[in-house]
Each structure stands twice: as structure tokens, then as C-alpha cells.
């Protein structure tokens, strides 16, 4: 697996490390989350890894912090869902506020979102174990409460929690599982 790529994601001076320092200096948590961890563990090159972050900061705070981050040009991409995007010299990133269990309306893929204060609760609402991991860019600790690393090593796609519930919430997850 791509342990070398994963290690580069939290080296001093890397985008994740520098951005996490910036957020922590302002009292907010910031973790590299989801697909970035999965892709690194699958062996993707760092240049192919998209930086998606999970944070304790509310969207307006994330926007302000990104506005004060050197050479970042933030934009509001999905603020209603907690997501703020930013263009950096190295590419695009997304920073999303922790969320808790979402409520899906019947016939709609768009959930009612409630912001949370816990990384663990945010990871618990994700679709698959391989997307429910996070990395602390300041110390390199991997948070993997649902066995995503083990599932990657087995090349297994497994839902977080009850698969029937996860697929009922958003039927497109069935296609994502196959992809």
C-alpha cells in the first residue's frame, strides 16, 4: 500500500500540514479525510490525491481562515452542506464542517444537514469504511474507527453501519460501491 504517499501528506511544509497548523492556531481542528486517505493507501501518487478536509470550524469560519491562508482563494461551493472550496497554487481543496447523521427526505438525494463537533460522528455518517478514515496532518495519526485500512488490504468495499440503511439513504451509493 501507499504508506510513502500517506507519510508525505503530513510532512512539515505539505499543504495538509500547513493548513492544519493554520486552523489549529485559530482553535479549530482540521483533518485530511475520506478519499484522500483511501487513494494514498491504494498507492496513488500524491499529485493524484484530492485534498478533502473535515473540520470543527463552521463554514463561515472556514471561509475566513482560508481567506487568511497564504495564496488561497476560497469560494463557496456547498456552504449549505458545510463545504468551502479553495484554489491553492497546488490545486483545489475542499474543507467541510463535521456533520452528524443526516436526514434524507423520501425521493431526494439531498440530505438535511446538521453540523457536528466531533470527527468520530462525522466519520460514522460516511458511506463506506474505506472513505471513513482521517489523518491528523500534524502528527500523522490515522483515525480508522471502522476498519477501512483492513478493507483496503482485502480490496473490500463495505458500508459503514447497516448497508440497507446506507443504500436507502442514497441509492447512488450502489453505483459508487461498484465503481
Label this structure with key terms.
single chain, 179 residues, seven-stranded mixed beta sheet, two-stranded antiparallel ribbon, 9 strands, 33% helix
List the topology elements.
Elements: H1 3-8, H2 15-25, E1 30-33, H3 35-41, E2 51-55, H4 59-67, E3 73-78, E4 83-88, E5 91-97, E6 103-104, E7 111-112, H5 119-124, E8 134-135, E9 142-143, H6 148-153, H7 163-169, H8 172-178
Parallel strand pairs: 2-5
Antiparallel strand pairs: 1-2, 1-8, 3-4, 4-5, 6-7, 8-9
What this model shows, in words?
With 179 residues, the chain is α+β, with helices and mostly antiparallel strands. The protein has one domain (3-178): Beta Polymerase, domain 2, CATH 3.30.460.10. Helix content is 33%, strand content 20%. The chain has 8 helices and 9 strands. The protein has helices spanning 3-8, 15-25, 35-41, 59-67, 119-124, 148-153, 163-169, 172-178; strands at residues 30-33, 51-55, 73-78, 83-88, 91-97, 103-104, 111-112, 134-135, 142-143. The longest helix is centred in the N-terminal third of the chain and has 11 residues, at 15-25. It is globular. The model has no long low-confidence stretch (mean pLDDT 87).
End-to-end separation in angstroms reads 19 Å
Low-pLDDT sequence parts: none
What spatial order of strands do you see in the largest sheet?
3-4-5-2-1-8-9
- Highest-level CATH class: Alpha Beta
Average of pLDDT? 87
Radius of gyration: 16 Å
Number of helices: 8
Along the chain, the helix and strand elements come as HHEHEHEEEEEHEEHHH
Largest sheet, in brief, is: 7 strands, mixed
Amino acid at each position: 500500500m501507499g504508506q510513502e504517499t500517506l507519510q508525505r501528506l503530513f510532512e512539515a511544509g505539505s499543504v495538509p500540514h500547513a493548513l492544519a497548523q493554520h486552523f489549529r492556531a485559530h482553535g479549530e481542528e482540521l483533518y485530511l479525510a475520506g478519499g484522500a486517505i483511501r487513494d494514498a493507501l491504494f498507492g496513488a501518487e500524491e499529485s493524484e490525491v484530492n485534498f478533502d478536509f473535515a473540520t470543527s470550524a463552521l463554514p463561515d469560519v472556514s471561509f475566513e481562515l482560508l481567506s487568511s491562508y497564504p495564496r488561497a482563494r476560497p469560494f463557496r461551493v456547498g456552504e449549505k452542506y458545510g463545504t468551502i472550496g479553495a484554489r491553492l497554487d497546488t490545486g483545489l481543496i475542499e474543507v467541510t464542517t463535521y456533520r452528524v447523521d443526516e436526514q434524507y427526505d423520501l425521493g431526494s438525494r439531498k440530505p438535511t444537514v446538521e453540523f457536528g463537533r466531533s470527527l468520530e460522528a462525522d466519520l460514522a455518517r460516511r458511506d463506506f469504511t474505506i472513505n471513513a478514515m482521517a489523518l491528523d496532518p500534524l502528527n500523522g495519526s490515522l483515525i480508522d474507527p471502522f476498519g477501512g485500512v483492513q478493507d483496503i488490504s482485502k480490496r473490500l468495499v463495505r458500508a459503514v453501519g447497516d448497508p440497507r440503511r446506507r443504500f436507502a439513504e442514497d441509492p447512488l451509493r450502489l453505483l459508487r460501491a461498484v465503481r
